[in-house]
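Translate structure to sequence.
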């Protein structure tokens, strides 16, 4: 199982600034620059690599990605897109990007295996930016932030955790129908973050877990096909009253759904969620609609998706991050690629 964790491509796509955003096939493309989105996700990945094997190279990676977020923060928010010249291309990033940054900071701050200087820095940045949650209007931005604040569990986070959780629940209640048990009228990018956030913030509120389970079940009804995971495609998504788009299938969907299912299993103890989590993991290695592995044995990278014509051969930041988070989680759970 140890052989499954191949970190070569991480060091290819990371430079002195952070993780580059895109690649042409297995070659990172500097002209596409960087994003806080990717470096926030990479912070979670690097902390997991360090937790698995506390080596200097992983501690240094964690510090580099965290340093990127320190530079990205301005006026209690985060800028997102950065050119290769280290200049940000915008004054303010999206709400989704802000939420992902808080999620990464909360995950890292709550990780007891991390060096104290890294955890303390995460907490300092969280304390500076958490108040901006009160201005969030985007549902998934709220969900990402809620995951991070739920893990942080500080006095500062309690107010915002309750506010974000209640807002997500209210949105679900407004949009739910008997034939559409979801938070919005369209299922789009990284849908599983919504039930995952509610599972993370269940607390003593039974209704939160009920909504988390009901919405996750609806997502799985539309993505678990013929015994394997088939994520909703990004070419059209899934609009209420229509059908899920078949392609393109993206690595981020498998990782996020896997984590939501695993959290559901840990919370509720229902083994169907454990099996679904395994199916999401195995999507990467060939148990998918095209029976193709997305892992590149030559580089250690992960292809960017499945299209109706086959593999998207590019190996961007999001793909390798999601694959390694999934693989490290699977290793920790004792799964194999043959489960």
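Result:
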């Amino acid at each position: 199982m140890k052989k499954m964790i191949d970190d070569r491509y991480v060091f290819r796509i990371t430079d002195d600034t952070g993780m580059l955003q895109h690649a042409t096939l297995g070659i990172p493309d500097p002209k596409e620059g960087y994003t806080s989105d990717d470096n926030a996700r990479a912070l979670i990945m690097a902390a997991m690599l360090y937790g698995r094997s506390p080596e200097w190279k992983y501690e240094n990676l964690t510090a580099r990605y965290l340093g990127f977020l320190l530079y990205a923060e301005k006026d209690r928010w985060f800028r997102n897109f950065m050119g290769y010249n280290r200049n940000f291309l915008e004054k303010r990033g999206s709400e989704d990007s802000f939420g992902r940054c808080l999620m990464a900071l909360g995950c890292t701050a709550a990780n007891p295996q991390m060096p104290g200087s890294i955890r303390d820095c995460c907490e300092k940045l969280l304390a500076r930016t958490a108040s901006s949650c009160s201005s969030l209007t985007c549902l998934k931005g709220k969900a990402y932030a809620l995951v991070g604040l739920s893990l942080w569990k500080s006095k500062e986070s309690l107010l915002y955790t309750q506010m974000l959780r209640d807002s997500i629940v209210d949105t679900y209640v407004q949009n739910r129908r008997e034939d559409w048990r979801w938070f919005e009228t369209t299922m789009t990018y990284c849908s599983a973050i919504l039930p995952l956030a509610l599972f993370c913030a269940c607390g003593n509120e039974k209704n939160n877990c009920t909504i988390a389970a009901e919405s996750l079940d609806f997502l799985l009804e539309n993505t678990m096909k013929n015994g394997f995971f088939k994520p909703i495609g990004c070419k059209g998504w899934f609009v209420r009253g229509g059908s899920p788009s078949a392609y393109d299938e993206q690595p981020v969907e498998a990782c996020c759904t896997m984590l939501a299912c695993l959290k559901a299993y840990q919370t509720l103890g229902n083994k169907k969620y454990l099996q679904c989590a395994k199916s999401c993991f195995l999507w990467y290695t060939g148990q998918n609609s095209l029976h193709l592995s997305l892992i590149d044995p030559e580089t250690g990278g992960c292809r960017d998706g499945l299209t109706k014509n086959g593999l998207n051969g590019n190996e961007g930041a999001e793909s390798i991050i999601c694959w390694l988070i999934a693989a490290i989680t699977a290793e920790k759970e004792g799964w194999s690629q043959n489960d």
